[in-house]
Design goal:
The structure holds 2 protein chains of 2 kinds. Chain A is built from 20 helices and 2 strands. Chain A is mainly alpha-helical. The two termini of chain A are 33 Å apart. Chain B folds into 2 domains: 271 residues, no CATH class; 210 residues, no CATH class. In chain B, strands 1-2 form a two-stranded antiparallel ribbon. Chain B is globular and about 70 Å long. Chains A and B meet through helix 17 and helix 18 of A and strand 1, helix 6 and helix 7 of B.
Amino acid sequence: MTGLEAHLPVLQVVVPMLVAPLVVLLHPRGLAWFAATVASAASFLLAVQMAGGVLAGQVYRYALGGWPAPYGIALEVDAFSVLLLLILTGASTLALAAGRASLDRQIELHRQPLFFAAWLLALAGMAGILVSADAFNIFVFMEISSLASYVLVAGGPDRRALPAVFKYLIMGTVGATFYLIGVGLIYMMTGTLNLADMELRIHEVADQRPILVAAGFITIGLALKAALFPLHVWLPNAYTYAPHAVSVFLAACATKVSLYILLRFDFVVFQGNLAGHDAQFAAFLMPLAVLAILVGSAVALFEVNIKRLLAYSSVAQIGYIVLGASLVSVPGLSAGLLHMFNHALSKGALFLAVMCLSTRVGDLNLQDLSGAARRMPWTLAALVVAGLSLIGVPGTAGFVSKWYLMTAALQEGLLGWVLVAVIVLGSLMAVAYVWRIVEAAWFKDAPAGDGADRPGEAPLGMLVLTWLAALSNVWFGLVTQVPRELATTAAAILLRHLP
Amino acid sequence: MNPQTAILAALAVPLAGALLIGLAGRVNDNLRESMTLLTALALIACVWSLLPEIFAGGRPGVRIGEVLPGIDVAFRVEPLGMLFAAMASGLWLVNSIYSIGYMRGNREKRQTRFYVMFAVSLAATIGIAFSANLFTLFMFYEMLTLSTYPLVSHKGDPATVRSARVYLGILISASIGLLLPAIVWTYAAAGTGEFTEGGILRGHVEGPQVGLLLGLFVFGAAKAAVMPVHRWLPAAMVAPTPVSALLHAVAVVKAGVFTIVKIIVYVFGVDFLFSEPSSGWLFYAAAFTIVAASVVALRQQNLKRLLAYSTVAQLSYVVMASAVLKPLAEVGAAMHMLAHSFGKITLFFAAGSIYTASKKTELGQLSGIGRRMPVTMAAFTIGALSMIGVPPTAGFVSKWYILAGAFQADNYLALATIILSTALNAAYFLPIVYMAWFGKDVTPAGQQHGEAPTAVLLALTVTAVLTLALFVYSAPIYELESQLVRGQP
């Protein structure tokens, strides 16, 4: 590793974080947006660059300020981090690039620089979580990203976002505090914050009560932030009332970043050291995952607001990811991680399509969509493609991860058949709730005298990027090698303690 | 054209056609219809150019790429798929001619969407016919379901959308809920899903599991409409008649029975399934469906609904024949797929012709109609005779082989079922035919009508002639399909 390449991990944080204060100064119309988009795109390129390196077998390690681990703060980027970095930076870039027209409508001009600065801080915070190999550093970045995302969610014109974000703030703070308590307890017992060091040292004190309590605090705190059922109540309103571009960004990656920490902590630090941790982990998470799939999908069946419907679908999809992880096997975890990637693709594309809709349709309720396909055929065709991926129709990304998940579940014997039934049931409910949107938009006539005067399609740039996202669902449904390899490598890393 | 190119072209042509039809639809209607006919002709050229190769025993294939390790998107043409593709592409042309007459005659709305989705569903059909493994088959199977939904819900009024929802609901639920787990199970057990002569599951599943897996496959392929997953078929009757023809003859239901026969022959293997007692239930389920659907058909007053239940029964002929698990019966199953297509498309064309000319849909209104619409009713008569299985029609030939297969297996219940169902078929078709020709004309004054448009008549004459031709000219089909069970006449 020479030159710039060695600094890639830290650049992932530094680029958006340094651009953020500069953006505040950019007042001329559109300039702040432009700077934020460029910074986000640069982060994406950095992530792609590292993905190339990781696929070639490299692991990026970086000692901040030259202080070697475990004394200094260490950064580490492996297959798991890079998979999430791709999702994060890709979603941010697409949401910003496509969202300009929508953001212009929703954010007043004079507040735009501040808004985009908050966006970059959220990006930097989440990227920081993903590259850190230090438990406390992760907490710091978690706070940065959380505070910035509260600003993002509340930044729109919808006043209902304010109570939503208050709930999000309370729950998020509780989650982060739980995490901090857990980390504090571990620090008390082991004297280290470095994850790799912790993994070694915790072994000596593994049977002590503070460690067990810490494991509980950390798992529950992060499950809260990851919106795992039944700790998901902050999520639907936050996604629904946020500005549309923010929904794209957060829906694709926010909860996944929290899941990332959860999985890393549980598998790497606790798995090999705490007796019976894997059984506990599975017994705790599997029922919740199953409930998330069933309840999340069932609620989505009855929602009338499209964004809320998709938000509840996210609750269910988090269930699939956790279900894969709760199998505590390499195929299961790979399936879950792959589903992180594929769900980000489909949900991102869906929210992009919703953003397109929002430029022409007043309220995003199902009955307002009647006949919308007549006016916006391209937008709704993209929505159908992404919806098919969410359902898991073969030929789309969503199918690949569900196939993996079913194959992994089948290795579990009789229990596996029950899980397959749950996955199938969840998919069937997905058919139903996606079809409610499709039917409303394509097969209902517009109410008389409505819509004739409104312009047709969404702005071209937004539409093109929406289609890019929709088609990437098809692309990654057929050419699956890159995400698959990252997911299986990541699963192998996480499960290295498995006997 | 070398076979590999022909396979790829057969998949690409309808899709490219769909695009061109969509673009032409913005210019004018005649150009759009010409595009449809051109695409159909081009598809026939591609598909039929493969026939000599398959007759000669070749099994050309193309591998597109690997989606997951061990799971490919790949195509391979074998006799059953060849027959299906040749039939679907040929009937599409006839159906397109008919559609032009029907859609214009009835002044239907959104005709461009109609022709575009028709072409897309043909691409899906070819994909199903040529698929080399379960995964590819499933992919195109779902594509066919989704692409026919806009056709079924064509009218767009609330009642139609409700029926279309039943259509989609049953087909998608069954395929995701049953077929997909069956496919995942097969891949997990056998390590592959390639269609292989002699099957792939021997030694990987055994005992009651075989019957269970077979059940997942058969009811998962709900397009074959084995009871109780047949409800979508009568529901789909709300569609315009050319779509009914597509569903009943060209593509959809045939995709269902094709999938079942293909899975029995190439995934389980006929011999393996025959040696497993737990697979025996399929025969009884199919026999039950034949009789029950015929009884329901007896009670129908609406012509299209009657035809729909007749289809349910006829499909189970194919399933039952394949479940007899003897070589001649498998040939009979393939043959019946073709024979039923010719006969049923003729019947639907006739029903649509009657509707276009007179807006009549109920059986009671048909009295004496034969004297007003002699061509239509002559074709209807031929189609009805083929359904009953009377010579000189196609239905007789296929029933002959199925019976021969039943004798091979000493399966007298199959024999009894066929005899009973023949009687029932006669009981619900012959009165219509008799009434139409010899009954009193009941057309109210002021609603006088003659024959349907020429395009409609042309199409139904062609299919009626095909129904007769298959009776005298079935040898090549036998030759082709006996390769399916090569070496065991």
